[in-house]
Amino acid sequence: MDDTYDIDAQANYEGLKFCPRCAAELEERESRSHRRLICTNCSYIFYMAPAAVTCVLAEQDGKLLFVLRRYEPGKGKWCLPAGFLEAGEQPDASAAREVKEETGLDVEITGIYDTWATDEDPRTPVVSIAFTARVTGGELAAGDDAAAAVFFDMGDLPEPIAFADHRRIVRTYIEKSRRG
Ligand SMILES: [Zn+2]
């Protein structure tokens, strides 16, 4: 798998024309070995920083919790319960909140599993933070942007799974659990 990705492919970067501070035109320039959009008037630098996304590996009786995506990107595909980290929110709390909203289940976050950056979301480059979690309560019921919420046997995963980072996280998690 590629270790890098190309932010120039991001539509929202290419579509930016004006400075959010002073409304003068932005121009693309080299800055500290990165090409960046910089304001021609006030020198404001638009940093194309990735957005943080959390996802959760909630395992129960050898099965892993997935949600069916109701909206694009990845509409009609399966993925781990996931969502954007909001400003002011701790990543573990954000992860547990997304599980509750999308699946109805309460979880206790038990650890950080992995992180991975991708450009597969057309809205923004993202860095995913994957947590492991234990189900502590609630009733399984799809909600928010999930059309379904289902535990799948780790030997019989749903298809297709959206997002390269989720596919990688699920694959390595299952490989590790098989090795014990
Ligand atoms: Zn400006």
Taken as a percent bin, the fraction of beta residues is 35-45%
Globular, elongated, flat, extended or rod-shaped: what is the shape? elongated
CATH architecture descriptor of the largest domain: Alpha-Beta Complex
Please report the distance between the alpha carbons of the first and last residues.
24 Å
Strand/helix succession: HEEEEEEEHEEEH
Mean pLDDT: 89
Q: Name the CATH superfamily classification of the largest domain.
A: Nucleoside Triphosphate Pyrophosphohydrolase
State the helix count.
3
Radius of gyration (Å)? 19 Å
What oligomeric state do these chains adopt? single chain
Quick gist of this model?
This protein has 180 residues and is α+β, with helices and mostly antiparallel strands. Helix content is 18%, strand content 39%.
Write up this protein.
The chain is an alpha+beta fold. The protein folds into 2 domains: 7-46, no CATH class; 51-179, Nucleoside Triphosphate Pyrophosphohydrolase (Alpha-Beta Complex). The protein has helices spanning 11-14, 91-103, 164-179, and strands at 26-31, 34-39, 45-46, 51-60, 63-69, 78-79, 82-84, 105-118, 126-138, 146-153. The strands form 2 sheets. Strands 4, 5, 6, 7, 8, 9 and 10 form a 7-stranded mixed β-sheet that branches. A 3-stranded antiparallel β-sheet has the order 1-2-3, with no helix packed on it. The longest helix has 16 residues, at 164-179. The chain is elongated, with a radius of gyration of 19 Å. The structure holds zinc ion (ZN).
